[in-house]
């Protein structure tokens, strides 16, 4: 695994992850020879980076026989590589440049989730709205996190809020109904999502983890690569409230959405729709299409 990053960012990987993988911090974007030299000795290459450009795609395709790009911007032309984007709605509306491309793997059926979120889904009872979990990702969303978590707790004193963000160490205001739970591993994250009656999160990978748990959700598109997903989410039966992070009236919209979510009937209907989603075999489906046989477990 080559990580074109800093050691601080590498700290987001758990110690257990590091023990399982050979992780090297390399400036491979500026020095593609490092990657190209390694390609001759590997069976499969997966590329996931927003710093990749079309010349890099062309070079890597010329060097690797089995190559997969994770690409949710749909910027590039692929000649023979696999490309995957498991964003909602792409099955029905593929990106213009990829229509008819036989190696494009698109839509929720290819969603790759952390193992904890692939466990069997226990029954859920929908009751009175009591607990809300707020999780808004990394550094680019930390200002939203501090503002929203605090304002929500102040505006809904009858609700208990739990909050986590990769970058925010503590909510700036101490409130009796706001608990910052720190950075959570996948198992703790799943438990917190299951225990919550409602989750407020970014419209990225975390949103798909929430979908897998059938917990009612209010997603907020906070970064550029999430903007294209808004229409598909708004058209879904399980996401009646999808917000834009740059909206000047964001808090007012979020406040109204939570008020609407007080309805047990609304949340029960949303959760029932979410339980029908096939979100636990994405890796297996992806590997089957590519032709790689996974171990039985």
What brief labels describe this structure?
297 residues, alpha/beta, Rossmann fold, 2 domains, 4-stranded parallel beta sheet, 11 helices, Glycosyl transferase family 28 C-terminal domain-containing protein
Topology record:
Elements lengths: L1 E2 L3 H4 L4 H6 L3 E2 L7 H7 L5 E3 L6 H10 L3 E4 L11 E4 L18 E3 L24 E5 L6 H14 L4 E5 L13 E3 L5 H10 L2 E5 L2 H9 L3 E5 L8 H5 L8 E2 L5 H11 L3 H12 L6 H9 L7
Parallel strand pairs: 1-2, 3-4, 4-5, 5-6, 7-8, 7-10, 8-9, 10-11, 11-12
Written overview of the protein:
- It comes from Candidatus [Bacteroides] periocalifornicus.
- This is Glycosyl transferase family 28 C-terminal domain-containing protein.
- The protein is α/β, with parallel strands linked by helices and 297 residues long.
- It has two domains: 32-108 and 280-290, no CATH class; 118-275, Rossmann fold (3-Layer(aba) Sandwich), CATH 3.40.50.2000.
- The chain has helices spanning 7-10, 15-20, 33-39, 54-63, 142-155, 186-195, 205-213, 230-234, 250-260, 264-275, 282-290, and strands at residues 2-3, 24-25, 45-47, 67-70, 82-85, 104-106, 131-135, 160-164, 178-180, 198-202, 217-221, 243-244.
- A six-stranded parallel sheet has the order 9-8-7-10-11-12, with helices on both faces. Strands 3-4-5-6 form a four-stranded parallel sheet, with helices on one face. A two-stranded parallel ribbon has the order 1-2.
- Strand 11 (217-221), helix 8 (230-234) and strand 12 (243-244) form a beta-alpha-beta unit.
- The protein is globular and about 60 Å long.
- The two termini are 23 Å apart.
């Amino acid at each position: 695994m080559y990580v074109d990053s800093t050691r601080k960012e590498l700290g987001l990987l758990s110690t257990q992850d590091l023990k399982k993988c050979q992780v090297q911090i390399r400036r491979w974007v500026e020095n593609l020879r490092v990657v190209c030299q390694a390609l001759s000795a590997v069976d499969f290459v997966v590329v996931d980076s927003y710093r990749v450009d079309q010349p890099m795609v062309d070079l890597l395709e010329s060097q690797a026989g089995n190559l997969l790009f994770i690409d949710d911007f749909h910027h590039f032309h692929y000649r023979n590589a696999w490309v995957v984007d498991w964003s909602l709605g792409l099955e029905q509306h593929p990106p213009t440049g990829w229509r008819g491309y036989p190696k494009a793997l698109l839509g929720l059926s290819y969603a790759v989730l952390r193992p904890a979120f692939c466990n069997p889904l226990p029954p859920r009872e929908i009751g009175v709205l009591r607990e809300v979990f707020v999780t808004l990702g990394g550094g680019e969303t930390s200002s939203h996190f501090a503002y929203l978590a605090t304002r929500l707790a102040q505006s809904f004193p009858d609700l208990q809020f739990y909050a986590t963000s990769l970058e925010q160490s503590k909510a700036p205001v101490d409130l009796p109904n706001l608990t910052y739970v720190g950075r959570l591993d996948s198992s703790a994250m799943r438990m917190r999502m299951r225990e919550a009656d409602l989750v407020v999160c970014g419209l990225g990978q975390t949103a798909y983890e929430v979908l897998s748990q059938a917990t009612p959700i209010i997603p907020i598109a906070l970064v550029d690569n999430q903007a294209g997903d808004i229409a598909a989410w708004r058209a879904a039966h399980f996401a009646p409230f999808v917000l834009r992070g740059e909206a000047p009236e964001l808090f007012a919209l979020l406040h109204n959405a939570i008020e609407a979510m007080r309805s047990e009937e609304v949340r029960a209907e949303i959760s029932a729709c979410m339980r029908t989603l096939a979100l636990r075999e994405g890796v297996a489906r992806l590997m089957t299409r590519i032709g790689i046989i996974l171990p039985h477990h």
